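Take our chain:
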Amino acid sequence: MSESSGLAQRIARLDWRAALMILIAILGIGVLAALITNQRSADAERDAALARQSQSYEVMILAQSLSGTIASAEATLARYVVSGEESVGRDYVAEWQRAEGQLTLLARRTRDHGLQQALITDLRTAVAARGKELAQIALNTRFKRNQAAYAYFDEARRSPTLPRIRNLLEEIVVAERKLLNERSRRARFTSAEAEAETRNLILFGMLIVIGAMILGWLNIRAIRERAAAAAEAQAQRERATELEAAVAAATAGLQEEARERAAAEAQLRQAQKMEAVGQLTGGIAHDFNNMLAIVLGGLELAKRHLPDGAKQSARHIDNAAEGASRAATLTRRLLAFARAEPLTPQAIDPAELIAGMSNLLERTLGEGVLVQTRTDASGWHVWADRHQLENALLNLAVNARDAMDARGTLTIATGHAALEGEAAKECSPGNYVTIAVSDTGAGMAPEVVERVFEPFFTTKPVGKGTGLGLSQIFGFVRQSGGEIRIDSAPGEGTTVTLYLPCHTAIEATAPDTARRIGPRAEPHRALDILLVEDDPRVLAATLAALEELGHRPVACDDPLAAPRIVAGLHTLDLVVSDVIMPGQTGPEMIAALEPQLDGVAVLYVTGYAGDAADHDRFGGRPVLRKPFTLAALETAIADAVAAPAGGQTTRATAAG
């Protein structure tokens, strides 16, 4: 009975303050539990959204990679048809199998999307059809049925299958991009909802904490015996604050990780896009140079045969020749972007190079631009092509001048950077010389910075720029083993920094003599020349050019027929041969003709930039790049006949 009465007395002592304190504690625990549950749910939904976005990026990258692999396989098949080498044929088979593997992986990554699966089914059909077309070409090439292989190859070029594949891949990328946008929108919406719920819970928790503090203060004043309970409530509030801080830190870490992942994916997409554009520009160079060779040769011959007094016609021809020359310059810039233009690197002191360009920069930029230089490369030298580096700095200076409207300060600064780990984004870790060109112009928005290296992209008015300056610099720097970075913001100017590999050995700079085999000697007599060229239009244009120079050329449109023609010639001083031809390349033809070419000079002509740098392939003989002028052709002939491998010796036939 006494125990029951004591319990009743203790219950009676619990007034409304104690009941309210218990209620506040329960609400606080509920808020904390809800906050933790909401955060975990938000984290799970965010991870799922990121996974879906990564899947979309992977699908788009796979589609682009599949397109590049198919293009590479067809290019390899073309080389197989031309060369007939079994190793090239095996390379083609391996690349086509890799394309089929990529198609299977693409189908696997899109199996949860009905529209994409329908497109993948059509793509499988188109790829299979294209594989049959190319297999027919490869089979005929393998069994040395060259004429049939060329016929099938020509038919395959006009086949609608390849455009169908490209269209399907583009549709897949477009559909996946739409799906990515929808997924991103959903992720943002989910994240916004989670943040709103978290804010509400935190606000409610803060109200609870404030109420608890007020009630605790009242309890301390009213009932001293409840001081211990108030201290325990304070401890609980402190633990709740620590938990909130831990949750906030975890949330910040996840957000930072998402930003880093998005930046890495954007960088990967940009690199793949630039690589694909580079492959495209390099692939069309040969055809462009052949066409330009015909145009320039025809214009020069037409001008030489104009009657006296035809000034208006001569002016029109000069204008057309200038346009063709500008087209050739644009092609060289595209080749520089594609990293197909040959370089002649040497050790360069950056400070000395910039000092030597000071007068040129002042004349080019005008009096409104103040040029400042700061050099601090710690004695390091650059291993690069001097001419290309000078052109790159001049292009950057002109771009800076235009960005400043010809009034402002241009700063060129050199330094040294050791790139390691993540700092080496597009190049190998190591020591680099930095050359930074800064201006005080209007700057660029982020979306413009992302596209500045694309060929033909320009923010200048029509007629003020080709859009190839920065893309040419990009190709030169990457071909030199370095990288280029841009730091710009609207209203804050632009800084373009070149990172070029360091070179510790100091080499004396000298003119490039790698291509010069012997002393130049002008031929003082008409030469008997065998001209080998498979393109009938280029053959006719070059034949007319040689005749115009006073020589006696003999045409040959098939390298396999060259031995028979050589055997029938009474005298032969020089062989002028294209490099890439069906059935047999120029160097292969010359190698087969060596027993018949005692003392006969050889001059190679090519429209592909990579050929001109491959000295070993041509046995040290001179190479003339298409398109060329009559003067260049005459100089190249003089170099060829003066070379030790050739000469001006007249060759008698074996018939006697």
User: Anything to note?
Assistant: The two ends are 147 Å apart (CA to CA).
